[in-house]
Structure formats: C-alpha cells, structure tokens
Amino acid sequence: MDLGLSGRTAVITGGAGGIGRHTARLLLAEGAQVVLVDQDKDDLKQARAWLDEQSSGGPSALTVPADLSTDAAAKDLASTVADLAGEVDVLVNGAGITGATGAFHDISDDDWVEAITVNLLSAVRVTRAFLPALRHGGWGRIVYVNSEDAVQPYDDELPYCASKAGLLSFARGLARSYAHEGLLVNSVSPAFIETPMTDAMMEMRSQEEGVSFDEAIESFLEEERPYMELGRRGKPEEVAAVIAFLCSEQASFVNGANYRVDSGSVATL
Hints:
Elements: E1 9-13, H1 18-29, E2 33-38, H2 41-55, E3 62-65, H3 71-85, E4 90-93, H4 109-136, E5 140-145, H5 158-174, E6 183-190, H6 196-209, H7 213-224, H8 236-246, E7 258-261
Parallel strand pairs: 1-2, 1-4, 2-3, 4-5, 5-6, 6-7
C-alpha cells in the first residue's frame, strides 16, 4: 500500500526507542525524510545504525539530541529541524516515561511533576513549536503515542495514568482546531509492548518474586492484564504499523481517533 508519504518530512520524538525506530523504518521505506529526536546521543546513534542495517542502503534518518523539558528546548528543536530538514509535515510524539510507581501515599509532588512534564507538557511544547510548519502546507499529521492507562488507570502507576489521560484529552481537543486546514490529529494507545520500559518493569518483578523474566511476564499477564487475550507482550512494529497508517494519506478521514493496540487489554467499549 502506498501511504502517500514520499517527499514528506516526519519528526519522531522518543525516536531512539523501539516504537520510534520501527515507525521511522516504515516511514523511510515510504520515501519520507525522518528526523529522530531523543535525549541520549548514543541511543540515537544506535537507532540510526539499526535503521541503516534495515534499509539496505536506503536513505538514513537524521538525528537531533534534545531534552524537551522546557519550552525553550522545544523551540530550539523546531529551529534546528527547520535548518536541517526544512518544513515538517508529520509529528509523532513518542517521548515518555513510566515515572514513579507504587502506593499513592509514597509518591511525592516531584514525582508527579516529572511524569506530567515529560508525558504531557513536552508534547504540548513540541506541538506548539512545530505547529506553524504543520499548518503551512494544507496537509499535516500529528500522532500522539499514548497508553491504555489513559482510559484504564492502575493504582500503582497513578502519575503515569493521569499524565496520559491528560495527553489523550489534549489530542482529542486539538483535533478540532486545525482539521479544516488539513492538519489531522490522532492517538495510538499501546499496552504492554516489548520496550525497555516494560523490560525494566519485568526485571523488577522477577527480582521481587524470585522468578525468571519469562515467568514474571506470564504472571503479570495473568494477574494484572487478564483481558490481553493474545497472552503476550506486543511488538514495537505492531504499534509502528498503526502509527504509520495515521501519518499517511490513507488516513485522510481519520481525525480525533484513539487507536488501541492492546490485545483487548482495555475492558470497555
């Protein structure tokens, strides 16, 4: 399927992660110019090397290290990308953290501020910084990588859940603002994907319960995610495929949607 992305420029924040790099692979294969953004230069270098291996000599992704914890940093990023790649047509907001977990009474104000800053405010700031370019050509796409936790909160991840609920509400509201200009806004909400974030969760669980990594995953699915009917973690490429579709011309009548990539984890309509 031709996604109609040839010649488009896409920016992916959190681009060095599994979902980010798999999304980049798909967009590059469709002829898009891709800019990966992440905090760590070494992680970006590894992601670019992985993409080069996957592409077999095709175009390489551009990389820009950035800490998006301030409005000034988001503006600097937009300026850097403009100089490097020109105007942006697609923005994928994938930067995020789990943040503090545990009982509510053990989580501090600083923990809450960190989760909200990274998961919600960084997306707001980056969107605002790139918005002039995204509105300019009469065609644009914004995709927010959200989570099942936005609509199905868990009591041991409350800062993460609340920040993701805020991000989902922001995305849905923003979808009404610029659609008449051709800028479409949507979200993708994965659940329990094979990423460093869930790897860390399962490593901790295996240590706490004295079981293997695979046994930790199995017990977590049984006890904490019983509606994930496929009985496994999702793969980053399975999320990336949905993101790539929402970035494309094929999604020209999709706006304000939240696509769940969760194996049925969210137990509601």
